[in-house]
Request: fold
Amino acid sequence: MIECKNITKIYSGNIEQTVALKNVSFTIDEGEFVAIIGPSGSGKSTLMHMLGALDTPTSGKYFLDGKDVSKLSDDELADIRKDKIGFVFQAFNLLPRTTVLKNVMLPLMYAGVPLEERERRAKQALKDAGLNETHFTHLSNQLSGGQMQRVAIARALVNNPSLILADEPTGNLDSKTGDIVLDTFKKLNDQGRTIVLITHERYIADHAKRVIAIKDGEIVEDTLHGIKNKSLNDIKE
Reply:
């Protein structure tokens, strides 16, 4: 599903250049649950922007579902984000005085999906995200943090994207609630969803089936099912 080939990202300032990513290469197959971990300044946020079609590399190539994303125009990148990627953010980004169901229906409205079909798909996405039906008519600001994050997950699912990209999805949650949200991602992955989770916490990353660790813009570990290729001990903050 994902193939990164020698991705390099350089930001040019007035005085000097900052190399955020250095020849990063890896693949992610359909149905994987991968955590990308690294401390602040490691390049993981830049990599997230690449995977989410929010930015393009200075050099190298990024393929998503076989399509070269690295050289697309802004409009083409927007289409990729709309059709291929579901985003889940730390801050939830829900409309506060809007019902849960309407929050999840919103992307479908922008896509021109008829009302009845919007409602059906939004309800199914909420069920898949593990939210009780009794909360569908609540306003989003009447929910707990964990419930709001499940609504955000449902909104990410509703367009049936190829990739779920979760950026620090438990960052605003206590550890118990965070574990519930992570269990939701596990269940979605068990259903065949491809999930990439960005985090700086090792215990969060350990919920994934594979961990890619990044330091100073380079991959320093790629761990699959407990088999480590390199040590992560020296990259913790």
